[in-house]
Design goal:
The chain is an alpha+beta fold and about 350 residues long. Helix content is about 50%, strand content about 20%. The chain has a 5-stranded antiparallel sheet. Strands 8-9-10-11 form a 4-stranded antiparallel sheet. It has a two-stranded antiparallel sheet with strand order 1-2. A hairpin with a 5-residue loop joins strand 6 and strand 7. The termini are far apart.
């Protein structure tokens, strides 16, 4: 070997002529090993750095490829989703158009049916009115009959179906402790006047009728009106009262109408209606003066008879009163008087 460590490691001769194989110097050997280790560390560090760089670049490349693939997949999925949504929206629009068309057709049918029902109700009401007039004419002999104590009459504010009124009546009478087996309901298929007749002997049936009527009276003294549903499912009041003869009904209806007329013509005067005596009276303090007697001899022959002294005392005009009564419209008549025309 030339220069270097090997040159310093020649065998040395001992005193007896033998060779010395130990290194020239332990210090030189230590420097050599230290240099060797340093060189190895530097080489390993360089290789480790290169390996890290390679790994980092590879990972980065993989991540980039993965992200690119993910983005591409997401875009493809979004495109498919948009296509699906567009197809569904188009289908829904088509369905909406069909439903709107069907709705319009149903609405037209509903309007037509509603118009037909209203027309039928008007015809039925007219037919009932004509039927009632015919019945009154045929029942002329019973105009002054006695009231039927076992009967309650029910008048509606507008034409109602028989089934609707009966349903309302059943609820009220059930609450009063009167099951359906104890009474019988009657009336037109569509109308404003109905009847409840209670079963049993004359006395017990009359007591049931009175019990049913009083069941509508509150402790305060006010009266409750049962309600039935019309064709539009709106509530309509029912007016319940004991049966009266046609003569009583005619006189009371005439008295109510006359009372409204004179109160309208003479608002400063106090008028009262004595139903038991069929009298309209003028009240001054505690004193009452007879003004008009209500006379009904038949369905056609009915009119008030005025007391002349009261007419003169208060300056009332009989002609003006009768003219206003003649021109009163049916809409001004109470529902319970709806079957009576003046």
């Amino acid at each position: 070997m030339g220069d270097g460590v090997g040159a310093n490691m020649r065998p040395a001769k001992r005193g007896n002529g033998a060779l010395d194989t130990n290194p020239v110097s332990h210090r030189e050997m230590g420097d050599f090993m230290a240099e060797f280790e340093r060189n190895q560390r530097e080489m390993l560090s360089t290789q480790l750095g290169e390996l890290k760089t390679t790994i980092t670049d590879s990972v980065t490349e993989l991540v980039d490829r993965s992200q690119a693939a993910t983005i591409a997949n997401q875009r493809a999925l979004q495109e498919k989703t948009f296509e699906y949504v567009d197809a569904q929206v188009g289908s829904l629009r088509d369905s909406h158009g069909e439903l709107q068309s069907k709705h319009d057709q149903l609405q037209a049918k509903h309007d037509h049916l509603e118009s037909s029902v209203n027309d039928m109700r008007a015809r039925m009401a007219m037919a009932e009115s004509q039927s009632a007039n015919v019945s009154q004419l045929l029942d002329e002999e019973n105009f002054v009959r006695d009231p039927i104590l076992s009967r309650l009459k029910i008048n509606a504010a507008e034409p109602l179906s028989n089934a609707s009124v009966k349903l309302a009546v059943s609820g009220w009478l059930e609450t009063a402790g009167l099951p359906e087996a104890s009474w019988e309901f009657s009336g037109p298929a569509l109308g404003i006047r109905f009847f409840v007749d209670f079963k049993g002997d004359l006395l017990s049936a009359a007591r049931k009728a009175k019990k049913a009527n009083l069941a509508l009276r509150r402790p305060s003294g006010d009266w409750v009106n049962p309600e039935a549903l019309n064709a539009a499912n709106a509530k309509v009041c029912l007016f319940v009262g004991p049966d009266k003869s046609p003569q009583q009904e005619a006189q009371e209806a005439m008295g109510k109408k006359l009372l409204r007329v004179v109160k309208d013509l003479h608002p400063s005067v106090e008028f009262v209606f004595d139903k038991k005596r069929n009298l309209i009276q003028v009240k001054e303090g505690k004193e009452r003066k007879d003004f008009a007697t209500l006379v009904a001899k038949s369905f056609e022959d009915k009119a008030p008879k005025f007391w002349s002294p009261t007419l003169r005392e208060f300056g009332f005009s009989k002609e003006a009163i009768l003219e206003k009564m003649e021109h009163n419209t049916r809409s001004q008549v109470d529902p319970e008087d709806a079957n009576w025309a003046f």
